[in-house]
Amino acid sequence: MRPGIHEQLSSVTEAAACLLWGSVCPGCGQPAARLCRGCAQAWAHAAPRDVAGELGGGAPQGVAVWAATTYAEPWRECLVSFKERGAWWLAQPLGEVLALTIAHAAPALASGVYLVSVPSAPRAIRERGWDTTRGLARAAAVTLQGVGVQVGVGARLRHARGVRDQAGLGAQRRSQNLAGAFVAAGDWHGRRVVVVDDLVTTGASIREAVRALRAARASVLGCAALAATPRRSGG
Ligand SMILES: [Zn+2]
Asked: Can you tell me which residues the record assigns to a coiled coil (predicted)?
């Protein structure tokens, strides 16, 4: 079947954008104005799964941890482009996938929920110009609000002290680096929250986030991330 006029026009527009701006797909590097069809399909077909069992002792106690994908291509390159290469516009499509994952992690969303992102290191926020994980949480909130869920994103966790960059640290060092590192200011009693992050590696970040939220008397419904590191290469 011949493509319709809209498909032809959009592919002409896309080709022009590639010629003019050298645009490439952030997932695979092929010429594309935004996500190429293959990478968009890879995200659309993401099948969120409970990864708590893959984290060994690293999972937070008594709460589900769901991830949309495995930290492998093309998802990994998309996340790196979003966080480190200025592909801020990925917040919207990735936020939609995160919203689906949140719905799996916390099926009882209908009565309202707060999305609380794992705080990025202050240095990462300075270098990137914004808190990318918080941006994902906000985009996921818009998607959930679109299907009638009451979602709050105003409340946040903060760093109680300085931490090292987690990259390159093993599981034990990650856990030590983050133990007691987050604080939820104020009394969160009665607030139902879902912890969201971009990537789950050992579980140390979400475990610390859950601890800080419970210390402030929040009710943690679950944790959701866009990707989980395959166990064989996890720290
Ligand atoms: Zn692609």
From this structure: none
